[in-house]
TrEMBL record, chain A:
GO terms for molecular function: ATP binding; ATP hydrolysis activity; branched-chain amino acid transmembrane transporter activity. This is Amino acid/amide ABC transporter ATP-binding protein 2 (HAAT family). InterPro entries: AAA+_ATPase (IPR003593), ABC_branched_ATPase_LivF/BraG (IPR030660), ABC_transporter-like_ATP-bd (IPR003439), ABC_transporter-like_CS (IPR017871), BCAA_Transport_ATP-bd_LivF (IPR052156), P-loop_NTPase (IPR027417). It holds the Pfam family ABC_tran. It comes from the Bacteria. PROSITE patterns: ABC_TRANSPORTER_1 (PS00211), ABC_TRANSPORTER_2 (PS50893).
UniProtKB/TrEMBL annotation, chain B:
It is a multi-pass membrane protein. It is found in: Cell membrane. Belongs to the binding-protein-dependent transport system permease family. LivHM subfamily. The lineage of its organism: Bacteria, Pseudomonadati, Pseudomonadota, Betaproteobacteria, Neisseriales. It holds the Pfam family BPD_transp_2. The chain crosses the membrane at residues 12-35, 42-62, 68-93, 105-124, 144-168, 197-220, 283-302. One of its GO terms (biological process) is L-alanine transport. One of its GO terms (cellular component) is plasma membrane. It comes from Rivihabitans pingtungensis. InterPro entries: ABC_transp_permease, BCAA_transport_permease. CDD domains: TM_PBP1_LivH_like (cd06582). One of its GO terms (molecular function) is L-isoleucine transmembrane transporter activity. This is Amino acid/amide ABC transporter membrane protein 1 (HAAT family).
Length: 236, 309
């Protein structure tokens, strides 16, 4: 059974239909990517999955149950965690406080402490800056905070919205390594990216979204080698 | 010299009360970007309800010492005001959460008028004396005098504010409040129930307001149904002076405004050759408000406003 099952999802924003009836599913343990140009409806899709936007039509089943009436703040307790577009770091909280916000719903203080230390091991840069306000960090460091914070939420399904946006290639490399590592630990991931090549290279499967519709889907390796994807997104 | 010291002492008393009230304005502003103009009315209700409860307690013929009666009444009035703060947000502001900014602002002013009139219905239009249960023994400080009640007011205001700042900076609830004020959508994703945090903010602010209301009434030995307006406006000025949205700013702004106002009242006669008397002291608070808005709208410790966009 799929961990996430989306059927005929339609979302409208103030008269504009951003998502026009999409189907997608993600199985336990998969790393799936959703690629597409700017404005294709990728972010709207993610925001709908965590209840920030209400669908106009269609159903979303997570872990076998419809999510229709779940309030936004309950998704994280069910293991559905999103790292939003633009990272969503709390600029006037310190790095450590940001990480602790990820564990907001948890009460197992000793486990939280050791997981924060683990995040510091993964990102030594964050350890150096643990008492610094997150707003003073570079974009790459903020993305590290956002990823670390998401890890502290103990996700079952992790939604990543454009983690590479605005970052230097070497930082992107590092972020994608972490995404792969989290995936190998058994976390199911839906990765939304404009950087199609990189995203497909680390993913099991992929969906291509164009103006609110899914136009292609399949194994990541197939999509990587397909002419249409190559032309539209890989610039070759 | 003794006038100067005397006015500084008076200013500290007044200022610590302003600071308590200003915290209520600034906390709500920090989390919702809203000036809750009904906050002054909560302060007034704190004073009035406390006086009514004192009346009931003394009517019961209990032979408790005066200060104990007042404290007991205050402890009962605080939850009343907290409930009021909760209801104000729930009924008046929450339905307007996504409305244009002018709508909640006008609602706040309207609510303030409604609450004032409710108070008039309950307590009438006259000044109500604060029962003489508290000692007002003067203490001599280098030629100036301060009463033991005033010393108690300043010390307890500072203790309460320190407790609040500790809560906001060091506890999980405080962290969630700060996160919500910076980015409510993302705080929601972390599992924070934003509505609960907003309610908690109103409730806390109202609790501080209730305490401040009783301090005002005890210090001036009286309360009345329209006292909330002026003191609310001055505390709002204090919050703006310190930098609205900034808790430390509210404390600094409150105390500073109290001192400025007292010094102004003390010297205005000399400054104008006796043309204006100390009853013109209110002009100082609002002169400060205008100057701050013109020259430093973000206040002394204010945050860069653009960041909130």
């Amino acid at each position: 059974m799929s961990l996430l099952e989306v059927k005929n999802l339609k979302v409208a924003y103030g008269g504009i239909q951003a998502v026009k009836g999409i189907d997608l599913h993600i199985d336990q343990g998969e790393l799936v990517t959703l690629i597409g140009a700017n404005g294709a409806g990728k972010t709207t899709t993610l925001r709908t999955l965590v209840g920030m936007v209400k669908p106009a039509e269609g159903t979303i089943q997570y872990d076998g149950k419809p999510t229709g009436k779940t309030p936004v703040f309950d998704f994280v307790r069910k293991g559905l965690v999103m790292v939003p577009e633009g990272r969503g770091v709390f600029g006037r909280l310190t790095v450590e406080e940001n990480l602790r916000m990820g564990a907001y719903y948890r009460n197992d203080e000793s486990a939280i402490r050791s997981e924060i230390d683990y995040v510091y091991e993964l990102f030594p840069r964050l350890k150096e800056r643990m008492t610094q306000l997150a707003g003073t960090l570079s974009g790459g460091e903020q993305q590290m905070v956002a990823m670390g914070r998401a890890m502290l939420s103990k996700p079952k399904l992790l939604l990543l919205d454009e983690p590479s946006m605005g970052l230097a290639p070497i930082i992107v490399q590092k972020i994608f390594e972490i995404v792969q590592m989290i995936s190998k630990q058994g976390v199911t991931i839906l990765l939304v990216e404009q950087n199609a090549k990189l995203a497909l290279e680390i993913s099991d499967r992929g969906y291509v979204m164009e103006s609110g519709r899914i136009t292609m889907s399949g194994a990541a390796s197939e999509l990587l080698s397909s002419d249409a994807v190559q032309k539209a997104y890989l610039g070759e | 010299m003794d006038i100067f010291l005397q006015q500084i002492l008076n200013g500290l008393v007044l200022g610590s009360i302003y600071a308590l009230i200003a915290l209520g304005y600034t906390m709500v502003y920090g989390i919702m970007g809203l000036i809750n103009f009904a906050h002054g009315e909560v302060v007034m209700f704190g004073a009035m309800v406390t006086i009514s409860i004192i009346g009931m307690l003394t009517g019961m013929g209990l032979s408790l010492p005066g200060p104990v009666v007042v404290l007991l009444a205050l402890m009962l009035a605080i939850p009343v005001c907290m409930l009021m703060g909760f209801a104000i947000e729930r009924i008046a502001y929450r339905p307007l959460r996504n409305a244009p900014r002018l709508a909640p602002l006008i609602t706040a002013i309207g609510l303030s008028i409604v609450l004032q009139n409710v108070a008039i219905l309950i307590w009438g239009r006259n000044y109500i004396p604060f029962p003489p249960l508290l000692p007002h023994d003067p203490i001599n400080v280098l030629g100036a005098s301060i009463t033991d009640l005033q010393v108690f007011i300043v010390i307890s205001a500072i203790a309460i504010m320190a407790g609040l700042l500790f809560m906001v900076e060091k506890t999980k609830l405080g962290r969630a409040m700060r996160a919500t004020s910076q980015n409510p959508a993302v705080a929601g994703l972390m599992g924070v129930n934003v509505n609960t945090i907003i309610s908690a903010t109103f409730v806390l602010g109202a609790g501080l307001g209730a305490v401040a209301g009783v301090m005002v009434a005890a210090n001036y030995d009286q309360a009345h149904s329209h006292m909330g307006f002026l003191i609310g406006l001055k505390a709002f000025t204090a919050a703006v002076l310190g930098g609205i949205g900034n808790l430390g700013g509210a404390v600094v702004g409150g105390i500073l405004l109290g001192v400025i106002e007292s010094l102004g009242a003390g010297y205005i006669g000399d400054l104008t050759g006796g043309f204006l008397g100390s009853h013109y002291q209110d002009i100082f608070a609002f002169a400060v408000l205008i100057l701050v808005l013109v020259f430093r709208p973000s206040g002394l410790l204010g945050e860069r406003v653009a960041e909130r966009a």
